[in-house]
Design a protein that fits this description.
Elements: H1 3-8, H2 12-53, H3 69-78, H4 82-114, H5 125-136, H6 138-147, E1 149-155, H7 164-181, H8 187-206, H9 217-248, E2 266-267, H10 281-309, H11 321-333, H12 335-343, H13 349-372, H14 385-388, H15 398-414, H16 418-422, H17 424-435, E3 441-447, H18 448-460, H19 466-485, E4 492-496, H20 501-514, E5 524-529, H21 532-536, H22 538-545, H23 549-558, E6 561-567, H24 568-575, H25 577-597, E7 601-607, H26 619-624, E8 634-640, H27 642-648, H28 651-670, H29 683-686, H30 688-706, H31 711-718, H32 749-758, H33 769-777, H34 782-792, H35 794-808, H36 812-820, H37 825-846, H38 856-884, H39 890-908
Parallel strand pairs: 1-2, 1-8, 2-3, 3-4, 4-5, 5-6, 6-7, 7-8
């Protein structure tokens, strides 16, 4: 079955949704822009679909099929006035947003269908528990769960191209579409839902796709809070309940929970200042206050809701002893408040105490708000008499709140009401254990070079630069946050481009200089290894770190726990996808051995991007591809920009994502380490020669491209790299500002990947792989050895499968047109020849007759989108070509370009 068949094989409900949304969009276009606009959109749509169907083998070196259909379409769009070109580009972009929604709804349907019988869903927690238990018994499961920790870290990396107004509109449309999917509403209700859908699509059409002002860090913070409010707070207890059911079966909800609260969230949003001058100490303090406001409000609402419903009657006799003592203690301190609550809940002690807890949470929120001097969506220090009327009511820390909840739980169980003890109340306890009063730990990040300059200035004793003053203020902000929200609210400090232990020592010394009175914040410094040389040198840096007194002190205080971070994005930009993947794997092997030799409980923090060229791809498979012994029950990973909304935009999809990651961590941790196997049995040992050949061949080709004279200038010429900053999709600049000039070294990985995706080349996801596989084919084992490694070594399977996905989103015909803009036939030939070689050898190694042959759902998604992305690419090429040749109306052309960038990102469903 080919790609055309995949395109036709669309499930009926999804086809219905796409047709409905497309028809409604057509009505909106006709009403807003007239029949002529709809006609132009339809002409372009039919033309690009026909060009796809008529696609013949590409003429070597030209990227153009016989008949040159693309040139005719290019001529058509070139004739439109810029106003009409913008309107058409916006129409295709809106269509992609709506099609993505329809696809998301189909995914939810599929998840429900898979969960329709008693068999565990593949890649679920129940599946993992069953597999481990079947092979090793229940004891290993309990042991694994005791140490399990999954730690996603949200980042503000600028990869979400959509405006917040657009995502909010899409959320409303999604809710209406779900209502239509429900068979229960009558004719009138369905008609009203369709009317509302038409209204929302009309509003989406009239909403500008481009931001008129640059995003500020606090805008990014508030955008992330949407994911917490709408999804994370609700999904977390559902995830734990899923695990508890797997462990206890029907006893879950009537017996003490067996599932631990293994999730912890971190965040760089509002705290990552590496190359972002807009993230200041004051911003970080405000971020902590905003997060606390959201989580305390959520906990307060949940506690009040459960309290109002918990109408367990104690009768005319006394309340259970523990409950009676707690209420009496509260009454002694706050008699008026207890009298008010008790008057509404006579002989219902559990209800009384939970409503009292809810009022304590409100007081905590208001008190922290006043202390912080800033809160979300309002002026600093808003008074709330209901919360502040009772001094001493606020909780000093989340631990005391959790203790109160557990007291109620114990008393309910002892009173013979276990279902009330271990049902909704247990889910609230899980939420409190996961989020605390700070929601997510803020992790500060700064570049090692900034620290070195700051320390030199401080040591010199002269006037300090603004940047150095800000570095010192950051440590004072961390101390301020810890004083108000607890040490876990902000104690990790990540050092970008760590070269030596001196970089770690510099952070501790700067903290000491910033707070000379000795009241230092608790600091866990995390070295980030990104370049190939730094990955190679990582264990030597850690050896020297252990000799630092502050590090030794933290190891003693934490049970010898240590964390290191591995950078996927910058290593891939420096080395290419193949060499970066293989060297990161080798670095993790060395780090795992180092940790064992030094009796250190090491957590490896994976700095993965959303795009395949930045370490992205299916998270569960990535976990299972880690070196044996490197996971050890602990997995920490970044979730960036567009990935946050893709994974947490819908509760069911959010829970599925977390289940896949957590189940993979359990399975990876249950696998015996390589030392427990025969010496030659580990695939990474058996196929070491394959890896070495691939590394050398791929790196040679990758460097031949990126180190070619004039490459950086050529790349800027053929792509919208320089224009991406005008999209204002994030608060931080595209370049760190640490290096010099406009070369690649100082360019961040996100615009590098984003720009390549717009050209339809997707080079960071596959370039060099063909040469690497060719090197293996020329070796002693031939291509058969690569085929064996693909079947037996998870790392190589993930590498090739991810490259295959990237190749499937590449379009050689369109790509050739972008590459030609640079006027460098040598570089164009190098890219296209490597593409041809990579495609051919990936298919040969995987055994597939076409790209994505074994993934029909993904193949269908790509095939359905391709023609429409082609339309936007051709409009973008019109604008880019004119800009590169110095045409008039530059501002208008740049606007058209950015509209198409937004649309292509929506169509490909990835940016950087």
């Amino acid at each position: 079955m080919g790609r055309d068949a995949d395109r036709q094989n669309v499930p009926a409900p999804m086809r219905r949704d796409v047709r409905l949304l497309g028809d409604l969009l057509g009505e909106v276009l006709r009403e807003a822009g007239g029949q002529s606009l709809l006609d132009d959109v339809e002409r372009l749509r039919r033309a690009v679909i026909a060009a796809r169907h008529a696609q013949a083998p590409v003429t070597a070196g030209t990227g153009r099929p016989p008949g040159d259909a693309l040139s005719k379409i290019s001529e058509m769009v070139a004739c439109w006035p810029l106003d009409r070109a913008e309107a058409v580009a916006h129409a295709f972009t809106v269509y992609f947003h709506l099609a993505n929604l329809a696809e998301e709804h189909q995914r939810v349907r599929t998840l429900r269908e898979r969960d329709s019988d008693d068999h565990p869903v593949r890649e679920s927690l129940a599946d993992a528990v069953g597999r481990i238990g079947a092979g090793q018994g229940t004891a290993p499961v309990e042991e694994l769960l005791a140490d399990l920790r999954v730690h996603p870290v949200l980042t503000a990396h600028p990869t979400e191209a959509r405006r917040r107004a657009v995502t909010e509109a899409l959320r409303r449309i999604s809710a209406l579409l779900a209502r239509l999917d429900d068979g229960r509403p009558g004719v009138s209700e369905r008609a009203e839902t369709r009317r509302r859908l038409r209204e929302e699509i009309d509003l989406l059409w009239r909403t500008s796709a481009l931001r008129s002002a640059a995003m500020r860090p606090l805008d990014e913070v508030r955008a992330a809070m949407t994911a917490f409010d709408e999804t994370l707070f609700l999904v977390v207890p559902a995830l734990y309940r899923s695990l508890d059911r797997a462990l206890q079966g029907p006893d879950s909800g009537r017996a003490a929970a067996a599932a631990p609260a293994f999730l912890r969230y971190g965040s760089w949003i509002g705290a990552d200042r590496d190359g972002n001058p807009f993230v200041t100490a004051e911003v970080t303090k405000q971020t902590a206050a905003i997060q606390a406001e959201h989580v305390l409000r959520a906990l307060e609402n949940a506690t009040a809701r459960i309290g109002r419903a918990l109408t367990v009657h104690a009768g005319s006799g006394a309340a259970p002893p523990g409950m009676a003592r707690a209420i009496a203690a509260a009454q002694a301190v706050h008699p008026e408040l207890l009298a008010e609550i008790t008057a509404r809940a006579l002989e219902e002690p559990f209800r009384v105490y939970l409503l009292y807890i809810a009022r304590r949470l409100r007081a905590t929120r208001m008190e922290l708000d006043q202390l912080a001097g800033a809160a979300d969506d309002g002026p600093p220090g808003r008074p709330d008499q209901a919360g502040l009327a009772f001094p001493g009511l606020a909780y000093p820390a989340a631990a005391e709140f959790i203790d109160d909840l557990r007291l109620v739980q114990r008393e309910l169980a002892q009173a013979g009401a276990p279902r009330q003890a271990y049902g909704e109340l247990q889910q609230l306890i899980w939420q409190a254990e996961t989020f605390g009063f700070h929601l997510a730990e803020l992790e500060v990040r700064q570049h090692s070079a900034v620290h070195a300059r700051a320390l030199a200035e401080v040591a010199a004793g002269g006037e300090l630069s603004a940047l150095t003053r800000e570095v010192l203020a950051t440590f004072r902000a961390m101390a301020w946050i810890q004083d108000r929200f607890g040490p876990d609210a902000c104690r990790r400090y990540v050092i970008s481009f760590t070269k030596s232990a001196a970089d770690v020592a510099a952070v501790y010394e700067l903290a000491r200089r910033a707070i000379p009175d000795g009241r230092l914040p608790r600091l866990d410094v995390v070295p980030l290894f990104e370049s190939g040389a730094d990955l190679e040198n990582a264990t030597r840096v850690l050896d020297d770190m252990l000799l630092l007194e502050p590090v030794a002190g933290r190891l003693a205080a934490t049970g010898r726990r240590l964390e290191v971070m591995l950078g996927y994005s910058d290593s891939a930009k420096e080395l290419g996808p193949v060499s970066a993947t293989l060297r990161l794997f080798t670095a993790q092997q060395r780090l795992a051995r180092w940790a064992e030799a030094n009796d250190v409980r090491l957590t490896m923090f994976h700095g993965r991007g959303g795009a395949l060229g930045r370490g992205g791809g299916p998270a569960g498979r990535a976990v299972l591809a880690q070196p044996p012994g490197s996971v050890a029950g602990r997995f920490k990973v970044t979730e960036q920009g567009e990935v946050i909304f893709a994974r947490y935009g819908h509760p069911m999809i959010g829970q599925r994502h977390l289940e896949q990651v957590a189940s993979a961590v359990l399975l990876a941790s249950a696998v015996p380490v390589a030392a427990d196997r025969p010496p030659d049995s580990a695939p990474q040992d058996r196929y070491r020669a394959v890896a070495e050949l691939m590394d050398a061949g791929a790196l040679r080709t990758y460097r031949a491209l990126v180190e070619a004279d004039g490459f950086a200038e050529w790349f800027a010429q053929i792509s919208p790299l320089d224009e991406l900053g005008a999209m204002r999709i994030g608060s931080r600049p595209a370049r760190r500002g640490i290096g010099t000039g406009a070369g690649l070294d100082d360019l961040r990985a996100i615009p590098w990947v984003f720009a390549w995706s717009q050209t339809r080349v997707n080079l960071p996801g596959w370039f060099g792989l063909g040469s690497g596989l060719a090197a293996v084919a020329g070796g002693a084992g031939g291509l058969q050895e690569a085929q064996d490694a693909y079947r037996c070594w998870p790392l190589l399977a993930v590498l090739l499968d991810n490259a295959e996905m990237s190749l499937a989103k590449t379009d050689r015909r369109i790509a050739a047109r972008y590459l030609a803009l640079g006027g460098r036939d040598d570089l164009t030939a190098l890219v296209l020849e490597e593409y041809d070689l990579t495609r051919k050898l990936v298919l040969a190694v995987t055994g597939h007759d076409r790209l994505l042959a074994n993934r029909p759902v993904l193949s269908r998604a790509v095939a359905l989108r391709d023609p429409y992305v082609d339309a936007l690419s051709l409009l973008q090429l019109r604008a880019l070509t004119a800009l590169r040749t110095g045409a008039d109306e530059r501002d208008r052309l740049e606007r058209l370009l950015l509209l198409t960038v937004n649309g292509v990102a929506a169509g490909l469903q990835n940016t950087g």
